[in-house]
């Protein structure tokens, strides 16, 4: 039988994952989550240095403008610098 008091203390004070707590106490993480929800247990907020999620980048910060000259691409043909009609009529 699991020691739910010890699991609750770890759940509410430890930075261990719920899976790790479950593994250490031979209880599934699902069972711990259900018990925690039912009994309204709360998890500690990890300090910023332990929060390994990637920061969200604002769309305008992520937008990069790239200008490529057509002739710089392999096999590309540069547009004419002048109009043939202007030379013939000019």
Tell me what you see in this structure.
It is a single chain. With 90 residues, the protein is mainly alpha-helical. It has a domain at 4-43. Helices cover 43% and strands 0% of the residues. The chain has five helices and no strands. The longest helix is centred in the middle third of the chain and has 11 residues, at 29-39. The radius of gyration is 31 Å and the shape is rod-shaped. The N and C termini lie far apart (98 Å).
Computed CA radius of gyration, to the nearest angstrom: 31 Å
Total DSSP E strands: 0
**Distance between the terminal alpha carbons, to the nearest Å?**
98 Å
Order of helices and strands: HHHHH
Please tell me the overall pLDDT: 77
Q: What attributes characterize this protein structure?
A:
rod-shaped, mainly alpha, single chain
């Amino acid at each position: 039988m699991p020691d739910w008091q010890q699991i609750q203390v770890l759940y509410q004070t430890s930075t261990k994952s719920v899976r790790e707590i479950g593994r250490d106490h031979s209880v599934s993480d699902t069972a711990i989550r259900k018990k925690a929800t039912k009994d309204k247990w709360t998890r500690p907020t990890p300090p910023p240095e332990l929060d390994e999620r990637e920061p969200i980048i604002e769309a305008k910060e992520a937008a990069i403008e790239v200008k490529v000259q057509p002739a710089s691409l392999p096999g590309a043909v540069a547009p004419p610098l002048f109009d043939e009609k202007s030379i013939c009529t000019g």
